[in-house]
Design goal:
Blueprint: E1 2-4, E2 7-13, E3 17-24, E4 33-42, E5 52-58, E6 66-69, E7 71-73, E8 76-82, E9 87-96, E10 100-109, H1 116-145, H2 163-172, H3 176-181
Antiparallel strand pairs: 1-2, 2-3, 3-4, 4-8, 5-6, 5-9, 7-8, 9-10
Length: 182
């Protein structure tokens, strides 16, 4: 097994036959589908017609294995695989052409970074927050560009004192010219 870009390439050969295949994506994740495609070629004799089976299980849990018989489409055999748990998996390919062949490989399945429901929830919350902040900024802009209201009316000024109130104050202080004439 060898990684090439986003594909895990599988290759094996003996004196009679060869097996080639791909697993896409090269780094499968738990709960996400992966596509396994295989091709069996004979160096001599008739073309391989099947059946072709694949078994996979966690390396330390052979009792929880899943076995699939692949469907032929054109010259390749295909199946969709979904891994339930993260960890190191053992992949076993079995077929019989001239003799029974059992090929084994190992691949690592990664854990989901976040549960899908939580990922969608965070995305929805982020979109809602961005929308609310955008509306808030737009409302502030509209308020600041609106015509200003006229200034408030000035407070009323107290009326000047009446002449009668001012006269007694003036009579207590003698005018300077009157005092010098006496």
């Amino acid at each position: 097994m060898e990684r090439r870009g986003d594909v895990l390439e599988l290759r094996w050969a003996d004196a009679e036959e060869r097996l080639q295949g791909t697993l896409h994506p090269a780094s499968p994740r738990e709960g996400e589908p992966s596509m396994l495609s295989l091709h069996v070629g004979a160096f001599e004799g008739p073309e391989f017609t099947g059946p072709l089976t694949v078994t996979f299980h966690l390396k330390d849990s052979p009792a929880q294995q899943v076995t699939r018989t692949l469907q032929r489409e054109g010259v390749n055999w295909h199946t969709q695989v979904e891994f339930d748990e993260p960890g190191l998996y053992e992949l076993e390919v079995r077929y019989q052409n001239t003799r029974l062949k059992v090929l084994t490989g190992h691949l690592t399945v990664a854990a989901q970074p976040l549960p899908p429901g939580l990922s969608w929830g965070i995305l929805a919350l982020s979109a809602g927050t961005a929308l609310a902040l955008g509306v808030r900024a737009m409302v502030r802009r509209v308020k600041s560009s609106a015509p200003t209201s006229p200034p408030p009316a000035p407070l009323p000024v107290a009326p000047p004192e009446s002449a009668e109130a001012a006269a007694p104050a003036a009579s207590t202080v003698p005018p300077p010219d009157a005092a010098s004439s006496q």
